[in-house]
Amino acid sequence: MKNNKHQTLLIIDFGSQVTKLIARRLREKKIYCEIHPYQKISHSFLKTISPKAIILSGGPKSVNEQHSPKVNSIIYKLGIPILGICYGQQLMMHQLGGKVQNSKFSSEFGRAFLKLKKETKLLKGWFNTSKEVVWMSHGDHVSKIAPGFEVFAISKNAPHAVVADTKRNFYGVQFHPEVHHTPKGILLFENFLKIACFKGDWTMQAYKKEMIQNIKDIVKKDKVICGISGGVDSTVTATLLHKAINKQLTCIFVNHGFLRKNEEKEVLKMFKNNIKIPLIYADESALFMKELKGVADPEVKRKK
Amino acid sequence: MYPDVIESVSVNEQISETIKSHHNVGGLPKKMGLKLIEPLREIFKDEVRNLGKELGISKEFINRHPFPGPGLAIRCPGEITKQKIEILRDADHIFIDQIKKFGIYDEIWQAFAAILPVKTVGVMGDKRTYEFACTLRAVTSVDGMTADYYAFDHEFLKDTSTRIINEVRGINRVTYDITSKPPGTIEWE
User: Fold this and answer.
1) How far apart are CA A105 and CA A226, in angstroms?
2) Where are the domains of chain A?
3) What is the pLDDT of residue B19?
4) CB–CB of B150/B107 below 8 Å?
């Protein structure tokens, strides 16, 4: 389901557990963004997405390892702002001529304090006091910055905690602005979005309209089955589908025997009276109980 | 949704690890002769709720706690039996009823009971009992990605434990799960 009407920010993922939180923070700011793994980045791919800015995520590897993830360096030639976070910063330095090191004194995990070296647009609104709390999680650190870059802030074990090439609008931070434990993280994203001239044009209202159109385009004259559990997700999905394709939609609610007390009655009542979408009900609790007999392993259970 | 996607298949399987497979992600048969439409794949739970509001679904329904597709089956560690599910269903019902009664339903992201695969000794009416233990779980969260356990009043816990043990046959011990996510997950399985 593609979306080309909005200004797009591309998040390139290097496998961090918190990459999704970057998207989360940006969505709060009404920014349309997409997360894609680093291997996918090619000239033609970038052309399709046509991003207005790029964020490079963190990741568990070291850029000095032979098979560590490297992104196609054409991203540095697009003339758009780039923000590298943690591994993303290290990779940017590595690819643009800097150096990354691992030593006993180069790691920081958890809370760290950032000290300002020089004012930058990226940290506007930070440093009301002399230091700011940030959340770090790194083994390596940048030991030599790439040509064209300057250091704007430091921490105890990251001498290049915030670096930037303000001419090309390339920024790198060693800490994680996307986690709540970096209290001013959102402000950093806001500043970056300002640098990249984003308008903030992505809202749920727009998403609804686009999804309805998308569904129509995909389904055409076909028929669609929607499984209902009675939860918020499946109900929202059903309502959205119903708005888009009306009678081409059939909703089915299977009782697998593991529902909460009175749940089946409540769901049926709600679909009839409030949602007003026809619903087919099937009680298959005996079948599910039979299939799960003797199964104790949680992964097997979930997949049965 | 996004939290489901991240817990199941990471964008890069080579690099990050699967935490647990999610029923909403990749749990479908490989060959089913059908095409898949997933309009909520790219949005978060609270965004799903906003979308629901945008679609005119009633607020009361939108604010319901999340409930997993496999339902009570993943709140019953070990082998599932009909008897255990029935015990669990009653305990869970009382717990949620208590939360609503105390007016704290909307402060909690998700709350449920789980039945533990262990029987312990108790004493009820001067008689020895040997029944299942259950645990209560209630967490606060913004988007389901991280969560903290909810700090109930002791009055609430006392009242709820008494109700569960008095009203549900088959449970003689109630515990409260105080693990955050991470390191725990919200559900038990």
Assistant:
1) 55
2) 8-195, 204-303
3) 45
4) yes
Q: Are A249 and A224 in contact (CB under 8 A)?
A: yes
A134 touches chain B (CB under 8 A): no
In chain A, residues with a C-beta closer than 8 Å to the C-beta of B16 are 15-17, 60
Interatomic CA distance for residues A177 and A85, integer angstroms: 8
Contact B77 A298 (CB under 8 A): yes
Instruction: Note whether B88 contacts A: Cβ–Cβ < 8 A.
Output: no
Query: How do beta strands A8-13 and A32-37 pair?
Result: parallel
Rounded Cα distance, A106 and A155, in Å: 11
Q: Is the confidence metric ipTM above 0.85 for this complex?
A: no
Sheet harboring A108-116: ordered strands across?
A: A32-37, A8-13, A53-56, A82-85, A170-173, A158-165, A150-155, A108-116, A131-138
Beta-carbon contacts of A122 under 8 Å, excluding residues fewer than 6 positions away, are A83, A152, A162, A164, A171, A173, A188, A191, A192, A195
Say if A8-195 and A204-303 have the same CATH topology.
yes
Both tokens of A197, joined, read: 């001239």
Spatial contact of B57 and A275, defined as CB atoms under 8 Å apart: yes
Model confidence over A157-213: pLDDT tens digits?
Answer: 889 999 999 999 999 999 999 998 899 999 999 999 999 999 998 888 888 998 999
What is the rounded distance in angstroms from the CA atom of residue B6 to the CA atom of residue A268? 32
CATH architecture of A204-303: 3-Layer(aba) Sandwich (3.40)
CA distance A26 to A232: 23
CATH architecture of A8-195: 3-Layer(aba) Sandwich (3.40)
Give residues 34 to 53 of B whose Cβ lies within 8 Å of A. Answer: 34-35, 37, 39-45, 47-53
Secondary structure of A6-65 in the HEC alphabet?
Answer: CCEEEEEECCCCCHHHHHHHHHHCCCEEEEEEHHHCCHHHHHHHCCCEEEECCCCCCCCC
Interface of A with B in 207-246 (CB under 8 A): 207-208, 211, 214-215, 218-219, 222, 224-225, 229-233, 235-237, 239-241, 243
- In a 13 Å sphere around the CA of A250, the CA atoms on its Cβ side amount to 8
Would you tell me how many other CB atoms lie within 10 Å of the CB of residue A197?
10
